[in-house]
Model the fold of this input.
Amino acid sequence: MGGHQGMAEADRDEVAGMVLGAWDAFLAQAASIDLDRPSRLPGWRAHEICVHLGCWEDHAALHDLITSARAGGPGTPPDPDAVNARVTAAHRDASREEVLAALRRNREATARYLADEPVELDAAPAVSVVGRLPLLSVVLGQAYELAVHGLDLVSCGAEPPSAAVLQSGLAALTDVTGALAASTGIFGRVSLVTPDGGWGFTAHGGGWQVRRLPAGVVDGPAVEAAADLLLDAASGRVNPVPAVARRALKVHDVGGLLQLAPIVQKVPGIPGGPILQLAARTVGGAGGLLGRLFGRG
Done:
């Protein structure tokens, strides 16, 4: 399976549906609430959540990623905490209309990439917060971030994200975790299972493949929970240990999950960020979590 590149091998229209659907849902959430309301993220209002997801003159993340992919993915991963602090400070006093316009610009930039850029660019490496990944995988990563921040906006009065948005977020989570496993030289497979179905990856020989799972299927190493709980655990919004204790989050094939422990050693050296945290807390972090629960570390 060496050389496979996860969702970068998927039909671009499939990825476009996931990402743009997540954007449309988030835009509707943002438009429905008072952006000055505090969120569940310490020190962040809905305003800061939306600002850091927007496209500004001094912050055009997708443009930078496309430039990186065209150049072959040189350089080192950015520090997302530093970038977020800079952008939210610079636009702290932006009006509601300016913030919503910045969100629309980022959605439009994503749509333009998916409609106009050559398909060959999808598999080109770009430097993301977790290292060099195929550009289309990084674009899909927006669906994870939008789903997680869509859950954050619920604390500001927004309606919860739809099941489809949450599944798109899980697809992105699975894809990037598979990429991290492959880049670490791990041979294995893991699934993220929800009552609505789920996603799994198989990493082998430096590559990885992603598969959609039907509802009710648990095959091999897996983390099982409601989609919103999986995303909250992935992003560090909730501590997964109590969820495991009350059986809201279930783990299957402990040994198989422990094979992913090297991801945990690789990822924490990279500064935070939602895409970073997904591997460490949901799948890669399962080794440490399960070890504590079952006395193995």
About this structure: Strands lie at 125-128, 131-134, 188-194, 197-204, 207-213, 222-224, 250-252. Residues 267-297 have pLDDT under 50 and may be disordered. Residues 221 and 254 are 7 Å apart (CA to CA). The domain at 168-294 is CATH 3.30.1050.10 (Nonspecific Lipid-transfer Protein; Chain A).
